[in-house]
Amino acid sequence: MNVPPDPHLVEVCVSSEPVFDGALLHVRRDHVRLPDGKLATREYVVHPGAVVMIPVRDDGRLVVERQYRYPLRQVFIEFPAGKLDAGEDALDTARRELLEETGYTATTWTRLGVIHPVISYSTEAIEMYIAQGLSHVGARLDAGEFLEIIDLGVDEMLALVDAGEITDAKTVAALLLYARRCSAP
Amino acid sequence: MNVPPDPHLVEVCVSSEPVFDGALLHVRRDHVRLPDGKLATREYVVHPGAVVMIPVRDDGRLVVERQYRYPLRQVFIEFPAGKLDAGEDALDTARRELLEETGYTATTWTRLGVIHPVISYSTEAIEMYIAQGLSHVGARLDAGEFLEIIDLGVDEMLALVDAGEITDAKTVAALLLYARRCSAP
């Protein structure tokens, strides 16, 4: 989105420092000048970006994962996804993660858009893709990665969203965008 | 979601420690036992939970905000939202934030569901509501809070999603769920 000049809204960086440099998370703390000239503190996760993809089988069913997500102590139903490696193109990440996690390659990739999952405390952007023309060649999970691959119909997934059984934001957003696009005249 | 026993997926906490305690962000690092018995490290933001709401005017238009989000250096179009205070009920948070940020009270609140914006590195859950029967009584922004209130039709917002101008995940998910519910037979 092109940001119009919004001096009544924009915050300007005064200083910036790393405050936590972990194995997974990297946090910065910035001091910013508010529109009224006062100072404030902002803390946020610096993230390399990510991808999520909807792998569509030739019969129309979608390839999804069941994966335990430790922060929430819960198994989630979610579309395949992953973080960009340094310098990696988002579509290359999508191809790599689809193969590693599900064992599928795809011949046709269509960009579905981008979402920002946590605009208040992370720089993360998630590029969304539709992957079609799937061939199963065998998964190559990273060491320490445990997940289950299942397939669900679009209507089945929508029913799971309505029942509160699919709550992962990237999966809900991508599914609803895809369902809307499919039902468009 | 009821988690079925999934010993082939579940990770078990071995130890847990706070590693960053900021003004806004609180990060923990846990050591976990993987399904194969090996150990791994998990880092994640501990979050009190949040709400997002779709305020629907009597003419059907939606009350939305334009707000600068510093981590992404960008003005976002988003539904009103906010974090739970300690011990606060989610619906009370929604009433409080709607009034503080937009100046509206609502007579009718309908729960739309819950989403988890970042299942890989945050405990955050966002309760979603529809707010109807709006009365404008005047905004009471917190000190240091700067935002602009506008109203948009559902179709206008969907067009902005399609154009990539609305990318905030909670707003995209809530809007599409609401649009789908409105168009359901």
Question: Could you explain the architecture of this structure?
Answer:
Two copies of one chain form a homodimer. Chain A has two domains: 12-45; 50-183, Nucleoside Triphosphate Pyrophosphohydrolase (Alpha-Beta Complex), CATH 3.90.79. In chain A, 20% of the residues lie in helices and 41% in strands. The first copy, chain A, has helices spanning 90-102, 154-162, 169-183; strands spanning 12-21, 26-33, 39-45, 50-55, 62-69, 74-78, 81-83, 104-115, 126-136, 147-152. The longest helix of chain A is centred in the last third of the chain and has 15 residues, at 169-183. Chain A is globular and about 60 Å long. The two termini of chain A are 26 Å apart. Chains A and B meet through strand 2, strand 3, strand 5, strand 6 and strand 8 of A and strand 2, strand 3, strand 5, strand 6 and strand 8 of B.
Short description:
The structure is a homodimer of 185-residue chains. By secondary structure, chain A is α+β, with helices and mostly antiparallel strands. Chain A has three helices and ten strands, in the order βββββββαβββαα.
Mean pLDDT, all residues of chain A: 95
* CATH class designation of the largest domain in chain A: Alpha Beta
Radius of gyration of chain A: 19 Å
CATH topology annotation of the largest domain in chain A: Nucleoside Triphosphate Pyrophosphohydrolase
DSSP E strands of chain A, number: 10
Largest sheet of chain A: 4 strands, mixed
Determine the oligomeric state from the structure. homodimer
* Helical content of chain A (DSSP H or I, runs of 4+): 10-25%
Supply the helix-strand structural class of chain A: alpha+beta
Strand order of the largest sheet of chain A: 7-4-9-8
Beta-strand content estimate of chain A: 35-45%
Q: CATH H level of the largest domain in chain A: which superfamily?
A: Nucleoside Triphosphate Pyrophosphohydrolase
**Second-tier CATH architecture of the largest domain in chain A:** Alpha-Beta Complex
Separate helix tally of chain A: 3
Compute the number of structural domains of chain A.
Answer: 2
Shape of chain A: globular
Write the element-wise H/E pattern of chain A from the N-terminal end onward.
EEEEEEEHEEEHH
Q: Report the uncertain regions of chain A.
A: none
Largest interface: A-B, 72 and 73 residues
> What gap, in angstroms, lies between the N and C termini of chain A?
26 Å
